[in-house]
Amino acid sequence: MTTVSRDLPSRPHLDIPKREARNLLKQLRTGNPEALDRIRRRHPRFKDAGATTVKTAEFRLSDAQLVIAREYGFSHWAELKARINSNTLAERLDTAIRADDRETVGNRLTKRLAIRSAGSFISYCGNGAYLGH
User: Fold this and answer.
1) Does residue 78 lie within any of the structural domains?
2) Which residues of 98-109 are buried (b: 16+ CB within 10 A; e: fewer)?
3) pLDDT 10s digits, 87-123
């Protein structure tokens, strides 16, 4: 795996890396040297390629997404997307728990999450969440 060049914000949103990928693609198309360097450092297909090769190669949005994901320390876009989505779900669950919104907590747990920690797990029992093991 490549080294991390930046961290996700504490409250990440998928729109940010999507925008970054589109911007990288635009920068490549205008011949931006920094974009070329980022692509050569993070995309395995262009690791040893010269600037001309990168400029003339077919480079899609999915390639730009791979570069962005690797800059955040993930091996591919789907992994970055899953990390952001899991953070969003955890944040929504935390908000529901703090608001004592049992229905939302139950829905989040039964539909999305299986939380396990030190031999215990959280499960839902009809009218509220409880901690069991």
Assistant:
1) yes
2) eeeeeeebbebb
3) 777 777 788 888 998 888 887 777 654 444 334 444 4
Question: Which residues, listed in sequence order, are joined to residue 129 by a DSSP beta bridge?
Answer: 124
Tallying the residues shown for the chain, one arrives at 133
Q: Say if residue 24 is in the same domain as residue 50.
A: yes
pTM, full prediction: 0.67
Write down the residue that tokens 């993070």 correspond to: 42
19, 55 Cβ separation under 8 angstroms = no
Other Cβ atoms closer than 10 A to 97: 15
Q: Which amino acid is at 83?
A: R
- Number of Cβ within 10 Å of residue 48's Cβ equals 8
- Report how far residue 33's alpha carbon sits from residue 13's, in angstroms, rounded to the nearest whole number: 28
Containing structural domain, residue 46 = 15-82
Q: How many domains are there within the chain?
A: 2
